[in-house]
UniProtKB/TrEMBL annotation:
The chain holds residues 361 to 589 of 629 of the full protein. This is ABC transporter ATP-binding protein/permease. Residues 4-229 form the ABC transporter domain. It comes from the Bacteria. It is found in: Cell membrane. Belongs to the ABC transporter superfamily.
Length: 229
C-alpha cells in the first residue's frame, strides 16, 4: 500500500532556475528509497511536492496509481507521516505532542507508542526547559529525545507512507545510531522516502537515487553505487 511514482516531474521556484528537470522514480509499496545529493539539489523539494506544499509544473506524482492532485488534501496528509530534521514541539505535554499524530487515539495507544519510542517514562512532562505560566517546569529534551517524540507520533498515526527528511542529521553520532535503529523499526514494510545528504546514512535502502543538476545522476543499491566509484 502507498506505492509512489514520480513521472517526468519538473519543478522550479524561479522560472530562470529549474530545480527538477524531469525526474522519474518509483517507491514500491513497503520499500525504502533514499534520495541523496548535494545541498540545494532539490531533495526536500521532492518531499514538498509529495505532500503538495507545491504542485508539479509538468509530469505527475501518483500514489497507488492515482494522481495526487485528485486526492483531497486531508486524505493525502493522513496518508503521509513525516519525521523532519528538527522536530518543533508544542509547549504542552509530551503525551499531547504524540497524540497530535492521531487525535482520536486512546490514552493506552498514546502510552504504547511512547513505550516503543522509549520515552514512556516522561510523557506527562513538558518538552521545553523553561517555566510555564502556571509554574510547571519543563524537561528541555535533547535533539534525540525530540526525534523520539516525532517517532512516537508517527507510530500512533501509522501512515502508509513515511518521509524521513534528514531525520538524524542534526544529531551526534551515538544518538544518530540510536535514532536510526528506531526509524528502521518504524519504516520496516512501510513505503518510505528517505532524504539524506550522505550515502553512508542510507545503507539499508532498497534503492538510492543520487540527485544532481536537476536530474538523477546515479541510482542503485548502496553496494552498486560504491562499486561505481
Ligand atoms: P536540498 O533539500 O537538496 O538541499 P531544496 O529542495 O531544499 O534542496 O532546495 C533546492 C533549491 O531550491 C535550493 O537552491 C534552494 O535555495 C531553492 N529553494 C528552496 N525553497 C525555495 C523557495 N521557497 N523559494 C525559492 N527557492 C527555493
Ligand atoms: P481522520 O478523521 O482523518 O480519519 P484519524 O485521527 O482517525 O483522522 O486518523 C489519522 C490517521 O491515523 C490516518 O492516517 C488514519 O489512517 C490513521 N489511523 C486511524 N485510526 C488508526 C488506528 N487505529 N491505528 C493506526 N492508524 C490509525
Amino acid at each position: 500500500q502507498g506505492a509512489i511514482a514520480f513521472r517526468d516531474v519538473h519543478f522550479s521556484y524561479d522560472p530562470e532556475r529549474p530545480i527538477l528537470k524531469g525526474i522519474s522514480f518509483d517507491v514500491p509499496a513497503g520499500k525504502t528509497v533514499a534520495i541523496v545529493g548535494p545541498s540545494g539539489a532539490g531533495k526536500s523539494t521532492i518531499s514538498r511536492l509529495l505532500y503538495r506544499f507545491y504542485d508539479v509544473q509538468k509530469g505527475a506524482i501518483t500514489i497507488d496509481g492515482q494522481d495526487i492532485r485528485e486526492v483531497t488534501q486531508k486524505s493525502l496528509r493522513a496518508a503521509i507521516g513525516m519525521v523532519p530534521q528538527d522536530t518543533v514541539l508544542f509547549n504542552d505535554t509530551i503525551a499531547y505532542n504524540i497524540r497530535y499524530g492521531r487525535p482520536s487515539a486512546t490514552e493506552e495507544e498514546v502510552h504504547a507508542a511512547a513505550e516503543v519510542a522509549q520515552i514512556g517514562s516522561f510523557i506527562e512532562s513538558l518538552p521545553h526547559g523553561y517555566e510555564t505560566m502556571v509554574g510547571e517546569r519543563g524537561l528541555k529534551l535533547s535533539g534525540g529525545e525530540k526525534q523520539r517524540v516525532a517517532i512516537a507520533r508517527t507510530i500512533l498515526k501509522a501512515p502508509p507512507i513515511l518521509i524521513l527528511d534528514e531525520a538524524t542529521s542534526a544529531l551526534d553520532t551515538t544518538t544518530e545510531h540510536e535514532i536510526q535503529a528506531a526509524l528502521d523499526v518504524v519504516s520496516k514494510n512501510r513505503t518510505t522516502l528517505v532524504i539524506a545528504h550522505r550515502l553512508s546514512t542510507v545503507i539499508n535502502a532498497d534503492e538510492i537515487i543520487v540527485l544532481r543538476d536537476g536530474g538523477i545522476a546515479e541510482r542503485g543499491t548502496h553496494a552498486d553505487l560504491l562499486a561505481q566509484d
